[in-house]
Specification:
This protein has 10 helices and 12 strands. With about 280 residues, it is of the alpha/beta class.
Length: about 280
């Protein structure tokens, strides 16, 4: 009998607390700070949430996950920061360990995605040291204790491939009997001044809010906006549009300068919900 794959945390104790009680308290704090915490969560098709250290971007992620109803099944799309592994790397078995407990991979959903879009390749190595999907899990898990998910790391910036992935996601999700949330893990512009970052980020956000994946791709690539997860966002928007998305809401925007006080070199964070 083979042992199921257990993916161990790569950034627990660095990007977020490694102690379960501390982590639970911190995440609940970010969720409860959201301005609509007393509103009924919306059933979203997709969302964009940041993935920096919680001290910088946790309040933005908290706003996103407080706003949406987190179903039992999620697909988490993230960029591949490490450059390790396949360009379209999926995991379809095992679980991801977190300080709050293990999150099982939804093997049936992952299998359906691979069948519909064979360019997705089984590859746990691309995920081993990648932080961008991992940091979303404590938020998702506290909002949905019965969470199962499919992690996909994207190491490609080709629009046609991202669009094809988005269409495949939509086809597979449409065939499910229960809701599936697509989480696109992304920070926004990196390592420029606060003023420049806000201008660049809002050009990208404008395209996101009009549900325009091609427009987002073009503005990011042509105007030198270093949005690390534009690929996940393009795929998510493509899928959401095909699934009948009507609107997108910017639930929170901030930069690291809002926390650090350093306005000379910042990273931007946008929280968006697509319904």
């Amino acid at each position: 009998m083979t042992t199921a794959i257990l993916r161990h945390p790569a950034v627990a104790g660095r990007f977020y607390p490694g102690d379960p009680d501390d982590l639970r308290t911190e995440v609940r704090g970010y969720l409860s700070q959201a301005r609509f915490i007393n509103q009924t969560p919306v059933r979203a098709l997709g969302c964009i949430a940041p993935h920096a250290g919680y001290v910088y971007s946790g309040h933005v992620a908290g706003a996103v996950f407080a706003r949406v109803e987190v179903p039992k099944r999620c697909i988490v799309l993230c960029p591949n920061h490490t450059g390790v592994g396949r360009a379209l790397a999926i995991m379809s078995e095992g679980a991801w360990q977190t300080p709050l407990g293990d999150v099982p991979i939804d093997g049936a959903l992952a299998g359906a995605l691979k069948q519909r879009f064979p360019a997705l390749q089984e590859d746990s190595t691309a995920h081993r040291a990648e932080h961008a999907a991992e940091v979303e899990l404590p938020f998702l898990l506290l909002r949905q204790p019965e969470l199962r998910f499919v992690p996909i790391a994207l190491g490609t910036g080709q629009f046609e491939i991202l669009e094809q992935l988005g269409k495949a996601l939509a086809d597979v999700i449409a065939a499910q009997n229960d809701p599936v949330l697509i989480v696109a893990s992304s920070d926004m512009n990196h390592y420029e001044s606060d003023a420049v970052t806000r201008v660049k980020d809002h050009r990208a956000i404008e395209r996101i809010l009009t549900l325009d994946p091609r427009g987002l791709f073009d503005v990011v690539t042509q105007q030198d906006i270093s949005m690390c997860g534009f690929g996940p966002a393009v795929a998510m928007l493509t899928a959401a549009r095909q699934l009948g998305a009507k609107s997108a809401e910017l639930v929170k925007y901030a930069t690291s300068g809002d926390v650090s006080g350093d306005r000379d070199m910042v990273v931007g964070y946008a929280g968006v919900v697509v319904v």
